[in-house]
Amino acid sequence: MKSLSSGQIRQMFLDFFQEKGHTIEPSASLIPVDDPTLLWINSGVATMKKYFDGSVVPKNPRMTSSQKSIRTNDIENVGKTPRHHTLFEMLGNFSVGDYFKREAIAWAFELLTSPKWFGWDKDKLFMTVYPKDTDAKKYWEAVGVSPDHIIEIEDNFWDIGQGPSGPDSEIFYDRGKDFDNLADDDPENYPGGENDRWLEVWNIVFSQFNHTPQDTYEPLPRKNIDTGMGLERVVSIFQHARTNFETDLFLPMIHKTEEFSDHKTYNTSKQDDVAFRIIADHARAITVAIGDGALPSNVGRGYVIRRLIRRAIVNGQRLGIKTSFLYKLVPVVGETLKTYYPEVLEQKDYIAKVVRSEEDRFNETLADGLKLLHQVIQSAKDNHQVAIDGPTAFKLYDTYGFPFELTREEANDANLDVDEKGFKAEMQKQKDRARKARSGAKSMGVQRDLLIKIKDHSEYVGYETLDVAKAKLLAIVENEKLVSETKADTAELVFDQTPFYAEMGGQVADRGVILNDDGDKVADVVDVQHAPNGQNLHTVKTQEPLIKGQTYHLAVDPLFHSRVEKNHTATHLLDQSLRNVLGGHTQQAGSLVEPDYLRFDFNHFGQVTDEDLQKVEDLVNKEIFKEIDVKTTITDPKTGKKMGAIALFSEKYGDKVRVVSIGDFSVEFCGGTHVSNTRDIGLFKIVSESGVGAGVRRIEAVTSKNAFELLNKEEKALKQVAANLKVTQIKDVPHRIEQLQDEVKTLEQKQSALEAKLAGQQAQNVFADKKAAGNYTIITGVIKDAGMAQLRQLADTWRSKKLSDVLVLGTGSGQKANLIVAVADDKVKSGLKAGDLIKSIAGNIKGGGGGRPNMAQAGGKDPSGLDKAMNAAVSWLINK
Fold first, then answer.
1. Strands 87-96 and 387-388
2. Are strands 150-152 and 125-129 parallel, antiparallel or unpaired?
């Protein structure tokens, strides 16, 4: 067999299908765009949905890709099995209404067996087919596959609910008896069973049915091909690796981890190899995901990143690694992927910074988690329990990142078990919550064949003009039918030319009117979207019937369009300003360009300070005031990148692209409309900045008239403040506020001193009333007109005078109550704890609290319960 690197194998697959007329699609970002059904891109076909459901017609119906993907549904198996991963690459070839079974099968066999390509022994290949799919079986036999190497399996049918579905055929590679981990008569010992010998390397889905909302299967108007080949598995075959981990995709991280570990080495026969594998796998996943814009957090994608980092750190501890190390694997991951994903290595410093920060934070949490685990174990032993309950084990897993196996390992050392069934039940609840959060949208739409049939050429002329006197009406869609004349109140129209911009790239669609030859309005254009074949599809509210084949006057609302243009160009200036101020790692994570405001989402680790936000705003306005010409160049993507144009992961670029340049300050790929000079924007003003997700910040801003109106509104409010402060000039407001703050501070100090004096006077009576409570002495009292600061001062006085064993004081007014408990030092040493006492009495004031063994405090919202709390404290001590 050939000796190939992972990079060579990936490229060979893509080159093969390129020779077969396929367009090589770049690997999309792991973060899905406009797809609420997915947390991550989890397969090659996930990026092809719009083609498969017919919402967009690809320029080439034949496509191929190597798509990075993430799946964490079976994360507990990562490292334990030879082939489970969180991040993996899926090689695939796709046909949208073009070739079908015969070609897909013939090409698959050619790639796998031809000496020019993979050159595998055909006798080592086995294929599974759907029993009713006689065509697939016939085509496999036609290319030379022996009938006894074709197995019929009932489960070979791909179906994810409503949308495209169909039979599939899986390809297995026989790795030989050395890999046979089952007995000869084991029912799973066959190609397609759960075993290590026959390795599944490719799945070809013959998408030929629409799974309808009525749960029927109707033939698709256009049949599709969707295939998936796991790169990691194929590499393991070429590199004679027993598992996917002994390949050039993982070994560099494993060997680097060996350098950090406590003199431990990777050996597949040792228990430690699981920890090495988990670290290598998770290092890959977090590095690529953070590079694509994901950041650690407690929700969504961020939770996955945090969980992977913590799982890797815990396994590092099992290897004797006590300090932060995971961030050092980031450049190693970058090196393994640089031939196809050079951007990972380019961002290594930023990614490592994010990982290091999370590692340092978790190393502190880990110590707390271990402490809690040991407390749980001790409590279980004290209460003569035989196992740690499931919810507690899940808390350790979910909050502190402890894998179930680690909890069980620690528990077993103490002769305890762990309720695995209860743990799995809690895990399932979490999965159900996540699934429910994404269940509102369809995974893939049913093909809307009607719009695909509209293939007439339509030209967008809005870059040059907003008014077209004669536009021929080519197609009318009404109630999901192509008609020759409108009769309903709403319709969708396609013209041979149009000045109306279709919504794209965050820029909203144009609005305007349609007039007849007499100049009378016949319809309002309320929305414009792209039809599957690229035409601008106008949604209109009709006043008069429109007739196919006639010409009409199309007029865009110029004011609406102009205001949108101003905000769009300002968005480009904002994007570059953020990079300049915060760093080149910031990436656009979404935008919305409306006539009244703009919204810009971007990836950033940490908050944006007021100072940096002001720098960003000032920089945008600086470029506006420079009066820079905005130029558009039409070129190819390669030339555009050489010009320095910024490209977005979420966008697919065709053979020709528009590069929008604002001097040498900003250069971006963009199909939107823009002002001709930055002076047209007038003014830029940030309205708000906030976090909207894990590592995603949002800026909302206004320009031109809206910015002017905002400043006027703020000035009016400031003048009102000046009037209230009785200052004649606005510039004196800050100084007057400082004066008032000083006066308030002085009054607060006087009030505090007065409260302390009053509390001290009351305390003389309280301190004189010492009671016996069981084996202890206690002083209790409710102090009026005091705060927590006064209670703490009284407690210090009590301690210095050694007036009793325990002190309990309370104060309150309105709906606020406070308690403080102090315990003498000698009683603390004997086991009496202030925290235990305050927890037992805080409920009387409808509150809670805690603290140190010698002093604790609580807050509540029911002052009427203070006397009850005093009595409860005495009772607690008596029963102690």
1. unpaired
2. parallel
DSSP 8-state class, residue 230: E
Question: What would the two tokens of residue 779 be?
Answer: 């002083």
- pLDDT at position 441, please? 43
Helices marked H in 319-439:
330-337, 342-346, 348-382, 390-400, 404-413, 420-437
Q: How confident is the model at residue 558 (pLDDT cuts 50, 70, 90)?
A: very high
Looking at 73-82, 330-339, 614-623, 748-757, which range is the least confident one? 748-757
Known binding-site residues for Zn(2+) equal: 568, 572, 670, 674
Residue 863 in contact with residue 813, Cβ under 8 Å?
yes
Q: What is the pTM of this model?
A: 0.71
Q: Where are the alpha helices (DSSP H) in 768-860?
A: 788-801, 825-829, 834-841
Owner of token pair 């609005």: 511
Topology given in CATH for the domain delimited by 565-712: Threonyl-tRNA Synthetase; Chain A, domain 2 (3.30.980)
Among 2.40.30.130, 2.60.40.10, 3.30.160.160, 1.10.260.40, what is the CATH number of 449-556?
A: 2.40.30.130
Contact 639, 631 (CB under 8 A): no
- pLDDT bin (cut points 50, 70, 90) of residue 530 is very high
Amino acid 348 reads K
* Distance separating alpha carbons of residues 241 and 225, to the nearest angstrom: 31
- pLDDT tens across 287-322, in order? 999 998 888 887 788 888 988 998 899 889 889 898
What pLDDT is attached to residue 276? 95
Q: Compute the radius of gyration of the chain from its Cα atoms.
A: 35
- Token pair belonging to 598: 């703009």
Give the model confidence (pLDDT) of 723-748 as tens digits: 888 888 888 888 888 888 988 998 98
Classify burial at 728, counting beta carbons within 10 Å of its beta carbon; exposed 0-12, middle 13-18, buried 19 or more: exposed
Domain spans of the chain, in order of start: 6-249, 282-437, 449-556, 565-712, 763-878
When pLDDT is cut at 50, 70 and 90, the band that residue 438 belongs to is very low
Ramachandran bin of 79, using left for φ above 0, alpha for ψ from -120 to 50, beta for the remaining angles: left
Binding residues: 568, 572, 670, 674
> Locate tokens 């130029």: which residue?
631
Report in angstroms the alpha-carbon separations of 740 from 725, 743, 744. 9, 5, 6
Token representation of residue 774: 């069981």
Residue 608 near residue 583 (C-beta atoms within 8 A) = no
Backbone angles phi, psi at 333, to 5 degrees: -60, -45
Which fold would CATH assign to domain 763-878?
Answer: Diaminopimelate Epimerase; Chain A, domain 1 (3.10.310)
CATH superfamily of 6-249: Bira Bifunctional Protein; Domain 2 (3.30.930.10)
In angstroms, the CA 209 to CA 218 distance is 5
